[in-house]
Each structure stands twice: as C-alpha cells, then as structure tokens.
Design a protein that fits this description.
Elements lengths: L14 E6 L3 E6 L3 E6 L4 E2 L2 E2 L7 H16 L7 E6 L2 E5 L2 E2 L2 E9 L1 H8 L4 E2 L2 E2 L8 E8 L2 E2 L11 H6 L5 H24 L2 E13 L2 E5 L8 E5 L3 H7 L5 E3 L1 H9 L15 H19 L11 H19 L1
Antiparallel strand pairs: 1-2, 2-3, 3-7, 4-5, 6-7, 8-14, 9-12, 9-13, 9-14, 10-11, 14-15, 14-16, 16-17
Helix pairs in contact: 1-7
C-alpha cells in the first residue's frame, strides 16, 4: 500500500495556531492566512477511522480546487493558491458555526430518518409517500451545527437565527449562495454523466463579507449518482450506482459499526484501503474529466513543507 499522511506537525514561518480536524489540519499563519492540509485520514459517523486511504488527501484537495475555481464568479471564496497537491493556502475568515447541507434527493441519513417516520427535517416539511433516492420537488436545505467533537446536530433556520449563530441577514446570503453553488455543481455533474445528490458548504466572514470556505463538491462532502440507469434502478427499488463515501458507511454498517458507544471499528485491511482509494480516484476522474496523476509520496511531509514555504514567500513578496 502507498504511503499515507495521517498526522502532521508543521511549523511554518509566522505560524500562530493549528487545528487538527477529522480530515484536515489547518495552520494559521500571520494574521490573515491559512494553510489547509488535506490528510489521508478518513472519517465516518463522525469517527476518524484507524487507517489512512492512499491519495485521498490529494483527491479531496484537487477536486476542491477545481470547483473553487469554477464557482468563484458566483460566490467569493477563501482560496489564494494550491502550492501542493494536498494543500490549499487562503484567506482566514471567521467561520460560522453551522454547515449548509442541501439535498436534491431523499437518501442517506435523511432516508434513514424518513424510514423511521420523520416528516420534517430541520424545519422543512417532507412529502408523504416518498421512496429511497427519489428526487425532491425542489432541493431542500437542512443545516447542521458544527460540533467541535462528536456528532453534528440538525438545526432549523429559525433556531440558527434565534440562537444568534448567524444573523438573519447573513443567513439569507448563505442560503442564496448555497442554492447557486448547488445549481452550478448540478450542471457540472450532469455534463459528466453524474447527478449531484447532496452536499454541504461552509461559510465564513472576511472584511464584512460572507465567503465560501473549506472544501466543495468532494466525495467527503458530497454524494453523486451515475445518471445513466438512475430511473431504471429507482423504479425497480434497486440501490443506485454512486460515487461517494456512502459505500464506506455501508461497509461499516454491515460490520456492526455506526459510531455508537461500545462499538468497535472493524479491521481495515490493506486491500480494503486500496479499494477505497480506487473509488476516490475514480470519482476525481469522473467529476473533473481529468486523469488523476499520483503525486510523489516518497516523503510527503518534506514535500508539503517545501511547497508551502515557497508559496508563503511568494505571497509575502506580492504584498
């Protein structure tokens, strides 16, 4: 199995802080910059799994870069440069403590709740009689709180505003951006024979303006179905052919793990990790239309450190 990057401990010039997330390690540099390292860690059910997935960080970072570039005409975003296949450097913003999830189809956790009788999700009424993987009449926005640890929690627009997590004015902007991003992502996916099923966006505020932060339209934040055969599979009640992290969740469920107390993560063989890697690479190539080129992973830490250092020096010289 190829080398994976599951832990980082960089010390960049001007570094003031570091945040180790489930998948990304975010380094604060000087007063206004971030270096976001997409590691090869993988999480499911809000649990970081014990082994890394080869090239996963590169896939996530390069897909995010592809879509951040493709949507900057409709939504301002944080990205300034991609100095390394696994790193994005950008503007630091004050992140909102909610994630904007938008769903075009009833699937995944929403379907699991629907099966249990739920007919309202985050304040949004759900029609009766829907079936798994059915398209909603219009995409629905179902936000969650951003948990520092543990599980994110569903929350309604009204609760977000009432609790002061986001002002009514900023929420209206985030909602508008969410719908525009999903529309663009849906159109780009359709061009590649895919359906963008659902995704999440994160926003922050910089210089008084709401901007898009973090990743966008990656397999960690999004779910894609293959368009070809969707209708036939739906009519027959068959599982959809999809490109997303859902197959990892399903594998875990089949091995009696859903992140609940007392449950143990099943053994992840090298063969399983390689198969997950292949699925991520397949998604990259399908969603971007570009061939995936595996970066040299001889010494990932050294490569990243040198590339970020060069980037910071270039950004500094331009100021």
């Amino acid at each position: 199995m190829a080398t994976t990057l599951t832990k980082t401990d960089f010390n960049f010039p001007g570094q003031t802080d570091v945040y180790h997330g489930k998948v990304r390690d975010v380094y604060s540099i000087d007063p206004d910059l971030l270096a976001m390292v997409a590691t090869d860690r993988i999480s499911a059910f809000d649990v970081i799994l014990p082994k890394g997935i080869p090239y996963k960080g590169q896939v996530l970072n390069q897909i995010a870069t592809y879509f951040l570039e493709a949507t900057q005409d409709i939504v301002p975003n944080w990205r300034l440069a991609t100095p390394d296949p696994m790193v994005t450097v950008g503007t630091r913003a004050e992140g909102f403590k909610v994630e904007m999830i938008i769903r075009g189809y009833l699937t995944g956790s929403a379907w699991r709740e629907y099966q249990n009788g739920c007919r309202e999700l985050c304040g949004v009424k759900l029609p009766e009689g829907m079936r798994e993987n059915e398209k909603f009449p219009e995409p629905i926005i179902t936000p969650t709180t951003k948990a520092e640890a543990g599980h994110d929690e569903n929350i309604s627009k009204e609760e977000i505003i009432a609790q002061g997590l986001v002002s009514a004015e900023d929420y209206a902007v985030m909602e508008d951006y969410t719908r525009k991003l999903f529309k663009r992502g849906t159109e780009m996916a359709a061009e590649k024979g895919l359906i963008l099923v659902d995704t999440k966006y994160e926003f922050g505020k910089h210089d008084g303006k709401v901007i898009l932060i973090d990743e966008i339209h990656t397999p960690d934040s999004s779910r894609y179905f293959y368009a070809e055969g969707y209708e036939e599979r739906f009519e027959k009640g068959e599982p959809q052919k999809q490109l997303s992290k859902e197959f990892v969740r399903q594998w875990l469920i089949e091995h009696d793990f859903m992140g609940k107390a007392g449950q143990t993560v099943p053994e992840m063989s090298d063969e399983f990790c390689d198969s997950v890697s292949e699925r991520y690479i397949e998604l990259y190539e399908k969603v971007t239309g570009q061939q995936f080129v595996k970066a040299d992973e001889t010494d990932l830490t050294k490569r990243i450190a040198l590339n970020v250092l060069d980037c910071l020096e270039n950004l500094k010289s331009r100021r």
